[in-house]
Each structure stands twice: as C-alpha cells, then as structure tokens.
Amino acid sequence: MKDAGDGGQEYEEGRWYDAEAGPLVRPYAMTGGRTKPGPSDVRFDLIALVDAAADAADRAAESLLGPEHRALLELCRAETQSVAELAADADLPVGVVRVLLGDLLEAGHVTVSRPVPPAQLPDERILREVIDGLRAL
User: For residues 89 and 72, what is the distance between their CA atoms, to the nearest angstrom?
Assistant: First the structure.
C-alpha cells in the first residue's frame, strides 16, 4: 500500500519513508548501541577541547574506522574544537559524538584537554573582612 502525502512521505508495508530526507541512520547504529564512551567511562564535557593526536598518522588504522569516526577526525585535524562544536559541525547528536570520541581516544587518534575548572571564589567571611577593612580607611 502506497500513500503519498503532501510532505513527500510514503507508507509502504508498515514503514515510513521520506523522499526528501534521504537515507536515515539511527544514532544507536552509529555507536553500535552504546551510550557511554569507551570501557573507561570517559566523560566529555561540552567545552572539552579535542585535537587530533600528533602521532596518529597511521592511515591504515584509520581506514578501519567508521565514516562518522573519520569525519570527526578530519574536523579535529582542521583545528582544535570543543565537543559541542564537533557535534554541530558533524551534524550529529552530542551523545553520539561523545561515544565516537571515546573510541577515537581509546585508539589514540585524538587528545582531549579537560576544561580548567572555574576559580574558587573566596570565602564570604574573607570578603566581608576586606570590605570592613576598606571602610575603616
């Protein structure tokens, strides 16, 4: 049974197709069903900086990677990017990018610089003492 709608969608044998969208790959297919990056459960912050490893020039090993892995690696080679930028540039969900980056990190293809934590604010008591000292001048 075919039923063409206004949006170019067709219903055939229990499946929906969208002619304008092209082929559709579900995110879990790109990650092999995984939701966490690597066996070490690495957590990538959105602002963590990812760069291609300097010693990861082994093109033979890269040929074994999936197309999404290679796309992320090429983006990292162009310039150091954050996880959020990689997700946007690769047009992939952030969760998928984190899993794929975990694979690349485990294989030694990329390096990740963790963001520096924000400076700890001084204790409120110390700030009050400074203010009181300034008022006393």
Answer: 9
Residues with Cβ within 8 Å of residue 127, at least 6 apart in sequence: none
Q: Could you tell me how many helices (H) and strands (E) the chain has, helices first?
A: 6, 5
Q: Tell if the pTM clears 0.70, that is, is over it.
A: no
The SS3 of residue 55 is: coil
- Tokens 């033979």 identify what position? 60
For 50, phi and psi rounded to 5 degrees? -115, 135
AA identity, residue 106:
E
When computed from its CA atoms, the radius of gyration of the chain, rounded to whole angstroms, is 23
Assess contact for 42 and 102: CB atoms under 8 A: yes
Q: How far apart are CA 46 and CA 114, in angstroms?
A: 10
Percent of the chain with pLDDT over 70: 60
Say how far residue 26 (Cα) sits from the centre of its chain: 16
Residue 81 host element (H or E): strand 81-82
Task: Report the percentage of the chain scoring pLDDT > 90.
Answer: 14
